[in-house]
Design goal:
Oligomer: single chain
Low-confidence stretches: 1-5, 100-107
Structural class: mainly alpha
Length: 217
């Protein structure tokens, strides 16, 4: 362990002793110390701190200030940790009951980065349930690292786009039509207020807007 890491660990241990009279705060520090062997406990603890704004009771104005100054991790990392934990709690509660037991080896616990990619995949509308299940297997059972999981996710998204060109065209068509409608409505409003053109032309524009809206329906 290098000198910098040793000093950080010593500082963490000092804070743990210093917060002995505050069980919740002490627990978060302990889970941060043990972060490398089990990120799930830290994610759970940080989620509680963030949700209940406990950091304010401990003298920190923001969650970012708390994680940076007391825990020693960047806000981006902290948010990934708590989002990944919440994702497991919501979508994969069975894993939290089995994958984080004392008998489980740390090596079998997927990284929070891999779980975060799985979380993003769950929210991707271009993927179906089978795609998600395959990715989940690669994370929880195959133990793939985050780079491999990202590569698998990118390949799946690319395949779905190639398999559904008609859907992609329809989506592009809808975007273009909505843009045209927005422009026409703005033009109609401006012409009505400025009266720069005959009222008959404004009515023609209104009729065109109606026809386009009917076409979209």
């Amino acid at each position: 362990m290098n000198a910098y890491a040793t000093k950080r660990l010593e500082a963490m241990e000092y804070k743990i002793r210093e917060t002995a009279d505050n069980p919740v705060r002490k627990h978060v520090l302990e889970t941060a110390r043990d972060f490398k062997s089990s990120w799930i406990e830290l994610g759970r603890a940080l989620y509680s701190v963030h949700k209940d704004k406990l950091y304010k009771e401990w003298g920190f104005a923001t969650f970012e200030a708390y994680t940076s100054k007391e825990i020693g991790i960047r806000n981006q990392t902290a948010m990934k940790l708590l989002r990944s934990y919440f994702f497991l709690e919501k979508e994969e509660p069975k894993f939290l009951k089995t994958g984080n037991s004392d008998a489980e080896e740390p090596a079998k616990i997927p990284s929070y980065e891999s779980v975060n990619v799985l979380r993003l995949a769950k929210n991707n509308k271009s993927l179906d349930n089978d795609d998600y299940e395959n990715l989940k297997k690669s994370v929880f059972e195959d133990g793939k690292d985050v780079l491999e999981v990202k590569k698998d996710l990118t390949s799946l998204i690319r395949e779905r786009k190639e398999l559904e060109p008609e859907e992609a065209r329809e989506e592009k068509r809808a975007i273009v039509i909505r843009r045209c409608l927005s422009t026409l409505k703005s033009l109609k409003t401006e012409l009505e207020s400025t009266k720069m053109l005959p009222a008959s032309l404004t009515r023609d524009i209104a009729a065109l807007i109606k026809r386009i809206e009917e076409e979209m329906d």
